[in-house]
Every structure is written in structure tokens, then in C-alpha cells.
Amino acid sequence: MAELLKRLAHAATNNRGLKLAAFLAALIAWYAIRATISHETLIKDVPLAILVGEGWVAMHGKIKTVEVLFRGAQEDLRRLDRSQIRLDVDLRSRKQPGPQRVRLDPRNVQSPGGARPVLVEPAEITVTLDQEGEKRVPVKAEFQGNLLQDHEVTQTVCEPATVLLYGPRRQLDHLNMVHTTPIDLEGRSRSFRKTYAGLALAGETRMARDGASNVTVTVTIEERSVLKTFQSMPVHALLAPNSRAPVDLAPVSVNLTLRGRAELLNALNREALRVYVDCAGLAPGTETNLPARVFVPAGIEVSAMEPASLRVTVGGGRSRGT
């Protein structure tokens, strides 16, 4: 043993040139290796996948992607396939609902190749866990744009009228209706029917797996109704055949307001209208109130009649009946 120690001491104090050369060679090799594996690149928009247990949903706000810093050889970094990179966060063992802080570990980055993930930004996120539920809600059509002038939507029918949604129970509890994606009405003047894929869903709410995937919307568009008033329209007494009993009306005229499409009302004149009271069933000597009526073309309706009824006297005074 003593002899061995002497030899080691002798080697340590001799051949200094050889030892210096070995040290320099090792130092150069270390720098060469370091230069080879110390390249870095930052990959943005790496998908964030939250893994949860059966029947649970994870909500993590607006953070859907992260940035990952990779380190390694230049060739390994060059071969990184962005489509195969993702960050898995395994929360399948957690069963407590509510918000929870979760650290994003570079070791959970899934990336084939020799490059090594060393940093994730952000390093921590808040995840809210909730149990999954289902709810059926009505569908309502959502519109954008303006119809052709003087037109309006008079009816909207969605098929199916309701859809089955699934998602976090707390979100579903506050959801009473779901809208279609905006339907463009710009410049339209005719009714139409169209099928839309999917609905405008918020948060983690989704269409139920066994539910309808498309919604068909039927939109009825009509020219906007306008009003037109005819002042002092004469009222006629409608009598039974061969009746000669005189009839007195009070008042003898009414103001008539009609509703309909502008083109129909503009083409209508007062001579085409006949306001009357039906006196055919009245016996001589009768005095009563009867409603005033009028014949109007198809597509036009009576909005107002002023007065709505007249005083009718049969058998006295000068007859106005024909």
C-alpha cells in the first residue's frame, strides 16, 4: 500500500505537460458537447389537454394553449413537429368540484424526438372542476343585417325546436335558451329555409352526443304592414230581399282604418269599399245598435272602425237602405 501511494504522488508531481494536454482536450470536448445540445427554441400555441375522470368537466377559462421552451441539438429542434406537441394535465384522480391551482410541468409535454421541453409559460393555471350534466333547452334564431326596406320577419321556426346539451352543471343551470349562429338578413325580401351546422355555445357546453347536430331555420319575410284611413265612409243598410221598411242610421258615416301591405293599400280607393250594417233580420219598429262591417280585399284587414256600432231604427224616418 505504501508503495502504491508513493507512485500516485510521483505521478501527480510529474508529467505536467501530458496532464495539461488531457485537461485541455476534456475542456474542448465539454464545450463542443455543450454547444451541440444547448440550442433553444420557443414553440407557441401548444394545445393544453385537461384529462378528467368519467362524468367530470374541466373549465380553464381563456387559456387553451401554452408556450413551451425546448432545448437540444439544432437538428432535433429543427425536426420538431408542432402538430404532435401537446401538454397533458392529468386530473383524473381529483374529485373535488370548484377552482384548483395546477402547475404545468414540462415533463408532461408530449413531443416526439430528441428535443427536451424545459419551460412552460404560464407555469400555473386555475382549473375549475364540475360534474357533467344534461339539459334540454329551446332554440332561438339569431339575426344580423337589415332586410330590404319596408320588409319584416313575421315568423321564425327552428327544427328541432329544442336540443339536448351537456356540460358543467353550473353552466347548464343558468342556460335557458341556445341561439343559432347569426343568420344574415342583409338585403333579403323573400322567405327562406336553411340548415345550420351547430349552435352558438359558450364555455364547455356542448351538443349531447346522441342529440341533433344540425338546426334547420325557416324564416318568413313579408312586406311591412302599413295603415291607411278613409274618412267619412258612408254606411249602407243591408236589408232582406223585397223589404221596403225604412231604416234610419245614426251616424250615417264612419272613419275606417285598414292595415295591409303598402302596395295593396296604395292601389285601394274608397269606391271599392262598402261599409254596411246587417238589418235583414230586423222587424219593423225595431230600434237597436248594430256593428258596422266592411268587405275588404284579401291581404287587407280592418284595424279600426270609428264608431264601431251604429244606432239602427226600422220603420220610421227616411230610409237609407237599398
How does this model look, in words?
The chain starts with a helix and ends in an 8-residue tail after the last strand. With 322 residues, the protein is α+β, with helices and mostly antiparallel strands. Helices cover 15% and strands 48% of the residues. It has three domains: 38-122, RNA Polymerase Alpha Subunit, Chain A, domain 2 (Beta Complex); 132-223, Beta Complex (RNA Polymerase Alpha Subunit, Chain A, domain 2); 225-314, RNA Polymerase Alpha Subunit, Chain A, domain 2. The strands form six sheets. Strands 2, 5, 8, 11, 12 and 15 form a six-stranded mixed sheet that branches.
Question: Judging from the principal axes of the Cα atoms, what is the shape?
Answer: rod-shaped
Unreliably modeled segments:
317-322
CATH architecture of the largest domain: Beta Complex
Strand content: over 45%
Q: What is the N-to-C order of secondary-structure elements (H for helix, E for strand)?
A: HHEEEHEEEEEEEEHEEEEEEEEHEEEEE
SS content category: alpha+beta
User: Total domains, how many?
Assistant: 3
Annotation, overall tally of beta strands:
24
Helical region count? 5
**What is the highest CATH level, the class of the largest domain?**
Mainly Beta
The percentage helix is 10-25%
Instruction: Report the mean per-residue pLDDT as an integer.
Output: 85
Largest sheet: 6 strands, mixed
